[in-house]
Amino acid sequence: MTVVVRPYDPETDAEGLYDCKLAFERGLGENTGGDDKAAVYEGKLTDGYRDRWLAWVERCVADDERCVTVAVAEGDDGAADGGGGDGAAAEAGDVVGYVFVLPERLAMIWDAAVVNELYVAPDRRGTGVADDLMAAAVDLAGDQSLPLDRIVLDVDPANERARAFYDRYGFEPWGEMVARPIDLG
After folding, report:
1. What distance in Å separates the CA atoms of residue 62 and residue 86, rounded to the nearest whole number?
2. First-to-last C-alpha distance (Å) of the chain
């Protein structure tokens, strides 16, 4: 199967993009934090969250259509689990990965270009799709007017595969992110 990398089209890609987003979120919960983290990530994946997230994607894409780049299957080679991680064989038009770079107007958040998310369906990993998506992200970042010339992303230190991928692209630790629940008294 060939895969084409192109800007997200909300008319044709919304469902496939959100299927990948679900797999991305569930992978964060399952693979890097145990049952409690998995439950937290799964608990947020409501219909309301879907609608809010897709609306946010559309707002970002309205700023720059390249903010969300998708990897889309062209043809079917019979590979399993190519349709966003749900176990179905990929068919032509299925979104099998994406990268989401925040629009330039949000660069002041981290004084940099921000890779918000990068996801590739498990059976497409190691095929160059992630490389193509990262190239699209780096190209977009290079076109942004940034406070500091850098591109940042958040990666769980326990995600060794992702860390190795980002290391290959020259990403290095830059501080440490800390978090706390808002509802603490």
Report:
1. 29
2. 53
DSSP assigned state of 90? P
Alpha-carbon Rg for the chain, nearest whole angstrom, is 16
Query: What distance in Å separates the CA atoms of residue 151 and residue 141, rounded to the nearest whole number?
Result: 7
With both helix axes pointing from N to C terminus, report the angle between 47-63 and 10-31 in degrees, rounded to the nearest 10.
120
Region of residue 62 (phi > 0: left; psi between -120 and 50: alpha; otherwise: beta): alpha
Beta bridge partners of 5: 71
Q: Band the pLDDT of 96: cuts 50, 70, 90.
A: very high
Question: Mean pLDDT in the chain?
Answer: 88
Task: Decide if 132 contacts 5 (C-beta within 8 A).
Answer: yes
Report how far residue 132's alpha carbon sits from residue 171's, in angstroms, rounded to the nearest whole number. Answer: 16
Q: Are strands 68-74 and 151-153 parallel, antiparallel or unpaired?
A: unpaired
| pTM for this entry | 0.87
